[in-house]
Amino acid sequence: MCRVCIPVGPPQTRAVASASKVWKDRNVLRVAFLEGDDSLHNLVMNIASMISHYCDMRFEKVPKGSKSEVRISFQNSGSWSYVGTDNLLILDDQPTMNYGWLSSDMDSNSPTATSVVLHEFGHAVGLQHEQGHPHQNIPWDFNKVFRWFEEKYGWTEDQVRQTYMNRMSIEESNFNAYDRASIMHYPIDNEWTIGDWEIPWITQLSSSDKEFLHSLYPFNNNVYLPSVKNG
To answer: How far is the C-alpha of 116 from the C-alpha of 173, rounded, in Å?
Structure first.
């Protein structure tokens, strides 16, 4: 069990899901805020609700101290979330999700806000990082990546591999085709790869994200929304 997302500043943030962490017995996750004002709460809930447009998973705000699956803090550094049902293993007074750089003056059109909230709530419903896809084909320039993270953050080679490069096993994951446009993909600088290959800062759900979410949590009538395109 671990929480995921790099605890350093933005930019940060189809899909791959841990088979054992997908919610199988519920379609509502209760969300409690441990601090923050109403405008900040509304910002998070409004963006998170975008996920519910494409699958039968909803998020319900409940008062602090109430029984909840997701508990959000704004006091810790960086942005992170526990994955899917791992949230149930966390003590009731401890956060399961954190936003270190959201502010109440942002709105639901803010690229920073949409990127980080959709990414972390993707984790909350069981999605893993797309760069960990079993079939990802990222042409890493390993020495450059290791050197960049060592100089900037003091990371070891093992930390870089665990965060960016290690792939999930086929046996432990649900997945479709690797998706470079997924909200669950970390940005990748062109200088970290061989050839002209990079991933920009993703700020919206991709078409494949939406389809994959629906496959994990289909609506009761099994009718999906009309075909969607990245916008």
So the answer is: 23
**Which DSSP string do the residues of 179-215 spell out, in sequence order?**
-TT-TTSPPB-GGGBSSS--B----S--HHHHHHHHH
Phi (first) and psi of residue 84, to 5 degrees: 50, -130
Helices (H), 36-132: 38-48, 111-124
Low-confidence ranges of the chain (pLDDT < 70): 1-19, 134-135, 167-176, 221-231
Q: What is the pLDDT of residues 161-212, one digit of tens each?
A: 887 777 665 555 455 677 888 999 888 899 999 999 998 999 999 999 999 9
HEC profile for 65-85? Answer: CCCCCEEEECCCCCEEEECHH
What are the extents of the domains in the chain?
A: 3-216
Give the closest residue to 132 by CA, choosing from 96, 169, 160.
169
Tell me how far apart the alpha carbons of residues 85 and 1 are, in angstroms, rounded to a whole number.
10
Class of domain 3-216: alpha beta
Q: Decide: 181 and 205 in contact? Cβ < 8 Å.
A: no
Angle at CA of residue 209, ends 76 and 132, nearest 5°: 65
Distance CA 98, CA 8 (A): 12
Q: CA 188, 190, 193, 199 torsion: positive or negative?
A: positive
Side-by-side strand order, sheet with 28-33: 3-4, 79-82, 97-99, 70-73, 28-33, 58-61
